[in-house]
Amino acid sequence: MLQPRSCAKQPPGSNPSWRKAEGHVITSKLHCLADARGRPLAFHLTVGEAADCKAYDTLIALPEQAPKALLAYKGYDADAIRVDLASRNIQAVIPGRSNRRVKIDHDRTLYKQRNGIERMFGRLKINRAIATRYDQLPASFMSMVHIATVRYWLKFVRAA
């Protein structure tokens, strides 16, 4: 499952790669690759103005075992992504954008399982540093995300 989440605003000038003109606030998006149970496997941070489909290449290359289906929201609806998924024999469960000329059907029942990643983001955002983006540097923010992810995964380890 792929899902970006917008994070709180970051002050300009905190990192040269995230710097913009004076007076403009920089936002960021946290993209997540999760397993079928909604457990996070990998994260990728992008600039808030970047298209969501830009994170696809980074995240799809990470899993050791290819998934049977990829559940993603409309931001990942691109022909190149659909072609790549077809070449990997992965079912694309991505609703089409409203401005798409050729409508593409998706498995609505399977798409409902994307709710698991929404709940996972909600649990991660219990950590105030993630919800409000206290850390100014991307490396510091990602460190907090990884710490919160470990705390989230511990719940599953204890249950096993």
Description of the molecule:
The protein is α+β, with helices and mostly antiparallel strands and 160 residues long. 34% of the residues lie in helices and 16% in strands. It has six helices and five strands, in the order βββαβαβαααα. It has helices at 56-60, 79-87, 108-111, 115-124, 128-131, 138-159; strands at residues 2-6, 28-34, 40-47, 69-71, 91-93. The longest helix has 22 residues, at 138-159. The protein starts with a strand and ends with a helix.
Descriptive labels:
3-stranded antiparallel β-sheet; 6 helices; alpha+beta
Draw up the topology in text.
Layout: E1 2-6, E2 28-34, E3 40-47, H1 56-60, E4 69-71, H2 79-87, E5 91-93, H3 108-111, H4 115-124, H5 128-131, H6 138-159
Parallel strand pairs: 4-5
Antiparallel strand pairs: 1-2, 2-3
What's this, in brief?
This protein is α+β, with helices and mostly antiparallel strands and 160 residues long. 34% of the residues lie in helices and 16% in strands.
Span between N and C termini? Answer: 23 Å
- Our count of helices gives 6
Q: How would you spell out the order of helices and strands?
A: EEEHEHEHHHH
User: Order of strands in the sheet with the most strands?
Assistant: 1-2-3
Beta strands, count: 5
